[in-house]
UniProtKB/TrEMBL annotation:
SUPFAM superfamilies: PRTase-like. The keyword Magnesium applies. Gene3D superfamilies: 3.40.50.2020. It holds the Pfam family Pribosyltran. Homodimer. This is Orotate phosphoribosyltransferase. It comes from Nocardioides dokdonensis FR1436. Signal peptide: none annotated.
């Protein structure tokens, strides 16, 4: 399993794998074909997270699994555009912690904000993401939020597709806490 725990932060207990959640997400969301990922990598399979995010029952199950992965000192839940937003909203609803919606780029009108919601300066933000492979979008958001004064140390994701035992975000000092890993999804296929 690619659960990465950083001893300098309050580590979340690694929840035991939920084979039924893995099986349900795999059956609904795993697509095969040729897919170009955000990183530019070409993959023969793709996890269409919008299929579980648009299913209220599955979205709730994923969000509930995230609760045990959140650092206790989390002040804001930073949902990354677009897939992290519905998950962060559901986790916010379940925890009562405020959500923050992090754009890929600051909007060029109105408030011109990158992060919509409460001010982040001096606050602990736990990022919420749908799928991580190389972590490009998370890396960009982490840097931008830190520049705005946020303390960002953890990202909780629904699916970690990175190679087992590797932390694709180690270069920015970010701990990855996944609900499911690619290995767990592959295991339900036998």
């Amino acid at each position: 399993m690619a659960r990465v725990i950083d001893a300098t932060h309050d580590p979340a207990p690694a929840p035991t794998a939920d084979p039924s959640l893995a099986a349900d997400i795999d059956a609904l969301c795993r697509l095969t074909g040729t897919f170009t990922l955000r990183s530019g990598q070409v993959a023969s399979e793709y996890f269409d997270k919008y299929l579980f995010e648009s299913d209220p029952a599955l979205l709730t199950r994923v969000a509930r699994r995230m609760l045990d992965l959140l650092p206790e000192d989390t002040e804001l839940l930073g949902g990354l555009e677009l897939g992290g937003v519905p998950i962060a909203t559901m986790v916010s609803s379940l925890t009562g912690r405020p959500a923050l919606f992090v754009r890929k780029a600051a909007k060029e009108y109105g408030t011109c904000k990158l992060a919509e919601g409460p001010d982040v300066a001096g606050r602990r933000v736990t990022l919420i993401e749908d799928v991580i492979t190389t972590g490009g979008a998370v890396r960009d958001a982490t840097r931008a939020l830190r520049e705005a004064g946020a303390v960002v140390e953890v990202v909780v994701c629904a699916i970690d597709r990175s190679p087992a035992g590797e932390n694709p975000l180690a270069d920015v000092g970010l701990e990855v806490r996944p609900v499911l890993t690619k290995a767990e999804l592959d295991a339900v296929r036998g």
